[in-house]
Amino acid sequence: MVGCSIDMNIVPPEIAAMEFYWQRLAAGAVVLPDDGAWATHRARKVAFDAFAEVRHAMILTLPTGQGLIIR
Prior knowledge:
By secondary structure, the protein is α+β, with helices and mostly antiparallel strands. The chain has one domain. The chain has two helices and four strands. The protein has a four-stranded mixed β-sheet, with helices on one face. The longest helix is centred in the C-terminal third of the chain and has 13 residues, at about 40-55. It is globular and about 30 Å long.
């Protein structure tokens, strides 16, 4: 898999989807989690930051409010 976009607007299923897809993503694949940069979605940012930290990945915040993670 070369990439995916995560936009379910509920944090636990989004993290579950990331856990499911992460191992299926090719090296260099792109993941776009939605809304993590907005103050009203703080829980999403915290959850995705924790997910990325465990996997030694970084999340780049985009001006659109999305994140960008490269596998």
